[in-house]
Amino acid sequence: MTVNPPAKWGLRTLAFGYLGLLLLAPVGMIFYKTFESGIGPPVEAMTSPDAVHAIWLTLLMVAVAVPLNTVFGVGCALLLVRHRWKGNALIDAVINLPFAISPVVIGLSLFLLYGTDGWFGPTLAGWGIQVLFSTPGMILASVFVSLPFVVRETVPVLQEIGTEQEQAASTLGANAWQTFWRVTLPAIRWGVAYGVVLTTARVLGEFGAVTIVSGQISGKTETLPLFVGKAFEQFDEGAAYAGAIVLALLALTTLLLMSVGGRKTKAQTNGPIPVTGAVAVSTTKENS
Amino acid sequence: MEGSPATLAAPPRVGIRLPWVGAGLGRGMVTLYLSVIVLLPLAAVVAKSTEGGAGAFWDAVTGSESLAALKLTVVASLIVVAINAVFGTVIAWVMVRDEFRGKSLVNALIDLPFALPTIVAGLTLLTLYGSESPLGVNVAFTRMAVVLALAFVTLPFVARAVQPLLMEMDREMEEAATSLGASGFTVFRRIIFPNLLPGILAGVMLAFARALGEFGSLILISGNIPFKTEVSSVFIRSQIESGNVSGAAAVSVVLLAISLLMLVAVTVLGRWSRGGKGGAFSSAIDRLVGLGGPSGGP
């Protein structure tokens, strides 16, 4: 349908107006608010002991949850795609569960398991391990909410690349481990990388689940999103805006990586099987 | 392939098996991981909600504050998905059929609600539409604020679900209709809209599920006033904090059930349209399920 010029401009105005008022203007506004009185105050707010600890703790969440879910994600994707099994449909459905659940409910679920009256809480407390209101509980919450991304992004790429190259590698004498590292992983790397970006973004920004299990103890169990929420509620708007800017910049980086990653995965799945795989096979052969 | 010399030379195999662990061990590990991380915690919620029997469950869900929160959550979510169904379709249209400078930038911007932490989303909306609004629009602590925040976090769903369908659409149909004398509106109503409907529906269902469980973006801007601006997720938190954990679990189970229903419906819709439509739509839906099911988006 060729739209006549007035209609075209009308649609454009609607689309840009909505995006502008809902997304662009508020985000622009928070940048303005933060740097209203120069770069000094936000830098100062972000170098306070509580803020530094919050940043450090947020990075710790990423450092634990992302590798865990990446190893799980790639392994699980291999199982789902390459090993037919009756239980696969069930595993597939369970992987989507974290998407179907409110973050607060996820927090509650961990509260019920690891709280003082919880299923595991008392036993673990007997061993001297405190999960709730401390780092392990927050890590569990982060792992829960970000579990599906790597699996979801790896499965389609794995389906797309097929098995010919892997078969070639194994007939040339590569063992399963060599085939995985030299052929499969290079071929699925963009899909995995995209999943890792999404996982990281989710862990960095998680608020609802972590807020329930952390107890929000400043300088102890407070991640950056919790720091932002608390600072705002305590009328320390400067610190809240500064923290929000750090998170917003990370989100914009994610966005950039997402649009690059999305394009790469698309190019990879639509195009011919990458050459790197073939090169890897020949090296494997020489080495073995 | 079966007859190729290479396959004859080595024992036939179907692609790579999991290296160094057998499939059985792999399955065991995946099941264990999923059980510890996801299934056991959820089982604890369901068990807690039914602790006092069906009567206590019903009382907890239909308590006046709980019911008010559920009503607000469902009604606000319905309003928001209706708004985003219209604007999402318009945005998708502009992104696919219109040409302008900076298009790829705007296209990337649409995903911003998926990438931005929810607490930051709430804070940004509050700076522009709060008490110090430079536009003079103050919606803080009203039901309008709930709608605004939910509209923000669910914005990408319909747009992203409709986009691939628009790209795949055969333009000859529209041209034929136009040449036969159909007006622009008739072409939209009779040809374009029916083709986009699966995308709009899928986007709406995912957005609805996401809106139901939303928490972080609402906490600052809604004011969390019981009977007025308190949504179910906020109600659940307040119940946990005041020690009524089984009440919190009961409302959680209701939210969980509605969201799961949406997820199943979208999966069925995706599978159904996989037959006729190309793969781009179903993969977009897979991706959307992945990106931002209810709790998705940081």
Low-pLDDT parts of chain A are: 270-288
CATH class group of chain B: Mainly Alpha
Write down the overall geometry of chain A: globular
Q: Helix amount of chain B, in percent?
A: over 70%
Low-pLDDT segments, ≥5 res of chain B? 1-13, 292-298
Structure description:
The complex is a heterodimer of chains A (288) and B (298). Chain A has helices spanning 5-34, 40-46, 49-82, 88-100, 103-114, 121-126, 135-145, 148-161, 164-171, 176-205, 208-214, 224-233, 237-270, 275-287. Chain A is mainly alpha-helical. Chain A is globular and about 65 Å long. Chain B is mostly helical and 298 residues long. Chain B has a single domain (54-292), classed as MetI-like (MetI-like fold, Orthogonal Bundle), CATH 1.10.3720. Chain B is globular. Chain B starts with a helix and ends in a 6-residue tail after the last helix. Chains A and B meet through α1, α3, α4, α5 and α7 of A and α1, α2, α4, α5 and α6 of B.
For the structure shown, list the relevant keywords.
heterodimer; A: 288 residues; MetI-like fold; 14 helices; 80% helix; disordered C terminus; B: 298 residues; mainly alpha; 75% helix; globular; disordered N terminus
Summarize the structure.
By secondary structure, chain A is mostly helical. Chain A is 80% helix and 0% strand.
SSE topology sketch:
The complex is a heterodimer of chains A (288) and B (298).
Chain A: H1 5-34, H2 40-46, H3 49-82, H4 88-100, H5 103-114, H6 121-126, H7 135-145, H8 148-161, H9 164-171, H10 176-205, H11 208-214, H12 224-233, H13 237-270, H14 275-287
Chain B: H1 5-9, H2 23-49, H3 53-62, H4 64-97, H5 103-109, H6 112-115, H7 118-129, H8 143-168, H9 171-179, H10 184-213, H11 218-221, H12 232-241, H13 245-276, H14 279-292
